[in-house]
RNA sequence: GCCUUGGUGGCGGAAUUGGUAGACGCGCUGGAUUCAAAAUCCAGUUCCUUUGGAGUGUGGGUUCGAUUCCCACCCAAGGUACCA
């Protein structure tokens, strides 16, 4: 009987769906295990083979855990709000909700394009997802809870004394009693101080404004990159050289009132929490760097002739007597004010030049030193000496205060700046030469020339100077974080609407929880309005009636009982910041999730996803989780115990090379190999129309006289060829290519030896290059096609077999035949009967078969625990090869073997399991138990090395002593042959391992 | 610049604690089977000047022994904030 994978896979996928095999219960005698994938954004392009890599790995792990007796939660859903759907809506006028549904469920879009749909594609790969728990972030019954969390954040403040988020009502009570003098909270810098009496005297508007300084989500003016032409705000990396990446429109910095999330309140806890999660170190490093904690002091420098002060943050307050200038970021707010008339022109020119440079550019360029003196002077807090104030683009406005106290003797950048501009470099270090470079070694610092700090090391000097600064009222010790509050408003249509309306004073009010969700209004176009308002400004029914408690027409707005709703929507990361908890109880309409559900599942045990989410999704999710923990909603303040980053699968593009300097009427493609020969031979190309044969010969030989150029790769333009037209030997299907690109219908193809390709006998070999998998590079490989041709089990095995999960690796469809023929061999192992009929015996297996089985159990179990899935596929191949040659057909071997294979290739496993006589799914069959006794050996084939190089092998009993081994080896003829009469200096014997003879 | 990851045959990769470098698979070569092809099976396949020798990005070091540990460097990919 043949291995009929198409029918087998269909049969079991239907079986799993019908029997709800993978539906997880929220209570069980078994221990729980939660395996989570980062859910996909359902794009119209569908899945390619790179997408399921992580899903296959997590599925193997989830299935393995079921075999190990766990109650496994393995859900899947869609992160279905997002920009591509909105762009598509703008272009085609289709509602993003419709296109999104088609992308998930399949169907035909307005253009008549058939879309398979993510769900079908995923189902085809045999994943053990519990689809009854599916969530879609763009469904109102899901985003109801995203809005709900937003309201909870609005109604909370961060109490630094308690080090947790608390109810805003408690803060109001405290204000009524004592004002805000004794409140320790994370709040805006410019929060005024007031007494209880002040508070009581405030108007409602004033009170609300004060409270916004404390709320965990708050309205603030933030600067954004505004692109008037696109009517939208752009991210830093959407801007290239000061203009938008799309369309090249000018971008201006604009202040906008937007919602912000006070993530900075959690900076320290986000940092500390990294200690207790098992996440990849590079990912932890990037979060640590993103949070950017540094300890030092805030120092205020008074300005000469101005009331203002320049605030700086420094990690080296101990070096304050070494300050010889200050540098402000060119964007610093004081620059315009303090620049003297003489310097004005130079400063303005410099600012203009800086504005054209991106932050990345300013950061990466350490060689160019630039800056301009403002003409102004600050005053040293202790010596009262004047300090010149410069501007320089090595200081970034976005970090700290945007100003630096420059200590050239202790900081290399300040040193280089001072040298370049001939600024004084006072030495304040004892016994250190600073004539060549700055001295930045904190540990070996002894301060000198510094008044009251003389003779002190770094730590004591820092302590002392902070105390002195505090006395002067010009500074204090401070911990600074790079982390900024996160802007939470987007001027887009396809996102969660805010449950917020604005009163006549422009103050925000939350809609009561019981009226959620506030669903997205219909609009007739998805672009910003003509007045520059976000797309929701196009809605005619987008006002909140506080009496009727519903969304009503805009015309009813009276600012008494009917108010305007927020026109912004939430960002992409809103919906993904708590979905892992919602999966635990996804249909609950009363609560975000029940306490029973969250207390049972607790947290994610294994999370698999891409490293590109290191500082976005994964940081915001941790923030929301900590907030929910403070509110007593979740039992764990970190949502995922272990995290694995899967690498990218890159595509192997295929190229044909068009000769750009031929003057024949026909297009000529030369093979990669032939061009190499021509270039290596330094062949010449001439420009005369000749019969084709002459033309080819002129490529390789120098034609007398009329030479125009030496052959060069630049003469041959590479064009992508669709990878589906190339076989496993890199041979192009020439006819297929001509049909695919009709403009090349008459093209001539020249093979590796300069032959013109005609018919099937000659081969055009394409060039290969590894690139990101993308439609435009024609290197996308569709998993459906692979499933069709080789089956889902082959696809699953092959994706794992490609290499280590975490590394990026190129896809090459040709190699899949290896794992496919492995599955066929596996099938034959169970079908040794006449005409390939199913047949297993009840005979006792021989010793070798037991050994093969148990070493396989051991290795596969270790591999899965270490997420080394590629090596277990090899192990299966070795096992099947060995069992085949042992002619093993014993049930005692073949039954446990198929359980081992089952997490990787579940369809074939179910089929064989059924044939073995089981009427229940294999999915919960207990994982075979490894027994050491089958691997015990009595002898070992020792490698015999000479000076560390293995020269021959010798089979010896394992119970020989060291001396016995040595004498046996030394007496061996091959040893004498190697030594050629020499006497060895030394013989190293490691019993059970190796023998090494030195000399 | 800085941080992170990586560099092993023609290709993907293996070598889990310092102990046989190249497992397993692809590709390639030869053979069997076949009218032929597909499929399947068997043998070979790191390189070289082959009774031997060299070899895991480069150059050093530690060691009886290094892909593995240490130092310096080169290259590639990803990230990034001159962090004061």
Automatic annotation (TrEMBL):
A motif ('KMSKS' region) lies at residues 772-776. ATP binds at residue 775. It is found in: Cytoplasm. Its EC number is 6.1.1.4. CDD domains: Anticodon_Ia_Leu_BEm (cd07958). Pfam families: Anticodon_1, tRNA-synt_1, tRNA-synt_1_2. The keyword Ligase applies. Coiled coil: none annotated. Residues 11-155 form the Aminoacyl-tRNA synthetase class Ia domain. It comes from the Bacteria. Keywords: Aminoacyl-tRNA synthetase, ATP-binding, Cytoplasm, Ligase, Nucleotide-binding, Protein biosynthesis. It catalyses: tRNA(Leu) + L-leucine + ATP = L-leucyl-tRNA(Leu) + AMP + diphosphate. GO terms for molecular function: leucine-tRNA ligase activity. Residues 289-469 form the Leucyl-tRNA synthetase editing domain. Residues 850-963 form the Methionyl/Valyl/Leucyl/Isoleucyl-tRNA synthetase anticodon-binding domain. InterPro entries: aa-tRNA-synth_I_CS, aa-tRNA-synth_Ia, Leu-tRNA-ligase, Leu_tRNA-synth_edit, M/V/L/I-tRNA-synth_anticd-bd, Rossmann-like_a/b/a_fold, tRNAsynth_Ia_anticodon-bd, Val/Leu/Ile-tRNA-synth_edit. Belongs to the class-I aminoacyl-tRNA synthetase family. PANTHER family: LEUCINE--TRNA LIGASE, MITOCHONDRIAL (PTHR43740:SF2), LEUCYL-TRNA SYNTHETASE (PTHR43740). HAMAP family: Leu_tRNA_synth_B. This is Leucine--tRNA ligase. It comes from Euzebyella saccharophila. The gene is leuS.
